Amino acid sequence: MRHIGHIALILTLLAGLSAPGDCQAPARYEYQHRQMGTLFRLVLYAADSAHAGRAAEAAFARIDSLNATFSDYRAESELSRLGASSDSLQDWVVVSPDMEKVLRQAQSVSARTDGAFDLTIGPLSRLWRRAFRQGEFPDSLALEAAREMVGYQKLEIHPEEPRVRLLRPGMRLDAGGIAKGFAVDEAMAVLRQHGLGAALVDGGGDLLAGEAPPGEKAWKIEIAGDTVLALCNRAVATSGDTYRYLEWQGRRYSHIIDPRTGLGVAHGKQVTVLAPSCTLADALASALSAEPGLEEKLRAEFRDCCFRICD
Known about the structure:
Structural class: alpha+beta
CATH topology: T-fold
Strand order of the largest sheet: 2-3-7-8-11-14-15
Largest sheet: 7 strands, antiparallel
Radius of gyration: 20 Å
CATH architecture: Roll
């Protein structure tokens, strides 16, 4: 899993501002909801508060349902149950449409990033979470054992049906590098279903800008404290280790784990990715955080995306 870096919306329009002589101009509304270990924020324009409130409530309900699907902290979630199925080496397991969609995109990104992004990182995530709680480096033998259970090639998706199987006992999945981005995309889809296209969804820094606010050409998004982006119908995700890391024997290990080495990354860089969807931006930011050296390869692989790495 990774930490979402700072992304701030520059609020250039006042709530409820109407054009002179136009009583029907949409007003600006903002809503917040805590889920997936972060704060989700909606900024939207609607004709009245009732319409805005209904849409926001539906968007947050969608986010709640996705948390119930993808949380690896909840033993009853679909993701946790799927991981536990590896213990008995069951054959194919039927998965929900949401799970299938996320797994297929995750596996595609894994293959195109040489495994720098990997949903099967769960065993390593558990070790490093314990290390952060205890303030101690993970046991080397435990790290090696966890690495043996990690590898996107060990997760197989049926080519035609919504079925999945895990090929090694003890495998566990961690969707922390993609689930928030997917939730942002799905929340925006709900707002659009309610006729509210001029909206912005922010999931703790994984952000999707919809159509521009009334009277504006784009949403203005500030990243890394010194750059302002003008975005419409584009997503941005930022990743870095600014807040969560382990100092051990003179070295700083981020909670961002490289799935191939099993270690928290130590480069201290901040990564920003612009992409057509927040799902993709989230996953690519996770991959590039694990290995910043992938930047040139990703520029060639994902020509509709933009990448920025800062010290």
